[in-house]
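W.,

You were right to be curious about this one. When I first looked at the sequence I had no strong expectations either way, so I just let the prediction run and decided to look at it fresh. Below is the sequence, 232 residues in total, followed by the output.
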Amino acid sequence: MKKSTISVVLVIVIIIVGILVFGRNSGTVNPGDNSGMGGAMNSSTTPSTPIASSEVTKISSKVSTYHNDELGFSVNYPNVWEKSETSSGVSFIMPIDQSQVSTIAKLQIDISVSSSKCAFPPVTTVKDRGTLAVGSDNLNMISMANTVQGRNYFDRMYSLQKTGICYIFAFSSIAQSPTVKKLTGSNLTQAQNNNKAIVNTADAAFTDMVKSFTFVTGPQGKDETQVVPVKK
């Protein structure tokens, strides 16, 4: 058999095999069926972490109200705070006055809501314990302060238990070691005094936020047990 004839036969065989393979694959994969991909959803259809529905209402040039129907609460906070949300709560980053001599690196507030029994994290350096009256509720409180590798940490937490729902309010601050900014002498003393004043001011603002906490009730759906089905 001539080489040209052999080549033509091979090309025809390859084309036929390709048509058979392509036809089999196209007939077994359903675009709407994930079973052909091991049951896994592709990245374009994988749901992201749900963000709790909420809204912010500006009530003055300095203060806004964060209102969350899904998590069932609202709080007031200064407009200069930076807000970010998760599926279980909200966080606020407080601005730090960079014009002051200080080593404060972080001022943050976190509010989280969970279906669980309230419990503070196990710690050995509790500074003080107490309660805070907010409306008709009493919130439990602990504060902690410690120093690790030259960094100063201060945290205050409040908890509120409502039936099976736990509300946790947490304020945290971090002050870097003075060596980071090479502070000595009078500058070091000034930074330490400013650090204390900044944290105290932020802590007071945090407590004011907690005091503004109120429960909210979102739109209610129909009680399906009371709905008469309509025949179609």
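Here's what jumped out at me. The longest helix spans residues 185-211. And, maybe more interesting for your project: The chain is about 25% helix and 35% strand.

Coffee later to discuss?

I.
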